[in-house]
Sequence to fold (398 residues):
Amino acid sequence: MDLYEHQAKKLFARYGVPTVQGSVVYNSEQAAGAVADMEFPVVVKAQVKVGGRGKAGGVKLAHNLQELNQYTNEILGMDIKSHRVRRLLVDPGVDIAEEYYLSFLLDRSNRGYLAMCSVSGGMDIEQVAKDTPELLAKIPINPVDGLTRECALEIVKKGQLPEEIQDKAASVVQQLYEVMIDADATLVEVNPLVRTTDDEILAIDGKVTLDNNSEFRHLSLFDEFRDDSGADFREIAAKKVGLNYVKLDGNVGIIGNGAGLVMSTLDVVAYAGEKYGDIKPANFLDIGGGASAEVMEAGLRIIMDDPDVEAIFVNVFGGITSCVEVASGIVKALQSLGDSAEKPIVIRIDGNAVEEGRKVIEEANLPYITTAARMDEGARMVARITADRLGLSNSEGE
Ligand code: GDP
Ligand code: MN
Fold:
């Protein structure tokens, strides 16, 4: 998971890394409020998870309220390498004397970390690596030994940082390494790490990538920094109950167990819906192997609640979990949903103990339910029901 600059700097601060932390704002009123206790100039910075914002015009120094207002309006909504700017960071301005580069990355091929440091920071580091590779030092770090004071000093020396600032810079190197290790990051990059006119070292930009495979041991960190701004709220709700849900733009709700089966179901529904013109799956939802009553209910709730959904196709294969359990799950779920379950449902279950399973559904005698013996038959049924509700007729005029 990549962090926004403001999140990265928040994380840095917890490890004592000297940095600037202004306010995150979403409009010009908030920006004006944010500078109430700051001195001009302030920096207005697009918060997008992509580099080169400065070059794209997404970082501006504002010297007064009028400039602040102008830059805020210019940068909000800007498209930076296909990332739409929706939030800004307003930071206190810094008097910069020099700009350095410092990063740690996971070096898989060497089974260790790699530190990179350069006196020539601020601009495009790829350009530095290409044009003046002698100015970009690369120092491998053995993760077992960790980063000693000597090694931190070696990094800043090889990066050719001025001698009088090396001691301070080495401390920041050690703090950033701690961020890397402690947060299980695969990348920690500061560009620029600046030397201020009064000889302080400050991280004024930050890029951090957390290792998704380590989420289980950093639950609160992931929760804190997770960015749901682009996600559908149903996707968020589904994730909370451990379901795999993706919102699509059609009108047939889909529930299945196993990613492969659900994908095939999307295909057959899209195919059956084609002849009505505009009937397509409204979502991907995989309730997984267990398919218990609880997960079935949680899944049905999410889909029933989607106003785009006209009808639902439940396509479950009983493997280890028998069809009796699956069927009881569906029945229990619908009973507990009660009156809120008022959209037509086509159910196709197959597999282990299918006859007994179908019987469970028939005997429950629930309204709105049709059963199908086969997947393509179920897809045609749900497409027809959806078409009826939308007043569409098929290409054969039925
Ligand atoms: P990036 O282009 O996405 O990497 O964004 P940065 O946060 O690195 O900002 C780009 C450049 O803006 C930096 O290299 C600085 O030269 C400049 N900049 C950022 N913050 C300040 C500041 O507080 N004061 C001044 N004078 N310049 C700044
Ligand atoms: Mn930068």
Notes: The first helix runs from residue 5 to 14.
